[in-house]
Amino acid sequence: MTRYQYAARLNSFYARPELFWPGRVAEPDTYELIERAATVDGLTAVDLNFPQQAEDIASAELRTRLD
């Protein structure tokens, strides 16, 4: 593990959705935002807005997606 963590707010991945999802009209869900965040080289952590981005998501499933 590196000495420093590189983190970003998950909300930042709502910006410019057309770059990741061409032609997208609907707002991405939490899992899609995690998928987009996973493409950032060196990103080691994300900050979720609670409870908005964790509503109706089982903590075990969220953990699996984040891993």
Describe this structure in words.
With 67 residues, this protein is α+β, with helices and mostly antiparallel strands. Helix content is 30%, strand content 9%. It has three helices and two strands. The chain has helices at 17-20, 30-37, 59-66; strands spanning 7-9, 45-47. Strands 1-2 form a two-stranded parallel sheet. The longest helix is centred in the middle third of the chain and has 8 residues, at 30-37. The two termini are 14 Å apart.
- N-to-C terminal Cα separation, in Å? 14 Å
Structural class of the helix and strand makeup?
alpha+beta
In percent terms, what proportion of residues is strand?
5-15%
Structural shape: globular
Order of helices and strands: EHHEH
Main sheet record:
2 strands, parallel
Number of helices: 3
Percent of residues in helices comes to: 25-40%
Q: Strands across the major sheet, in which order?
A: 1-2
The count of strands amounts to 2
**What is the mean predicted local confidence, pLDDT?**
89
- Stretches where pLDDT is under 50 for at least 5 consecutive residues are none
Radius of gyration, Cα only, in angstroms? 12 Å
Task: List its traits.
67 residues; alpha+beta; 30% helix
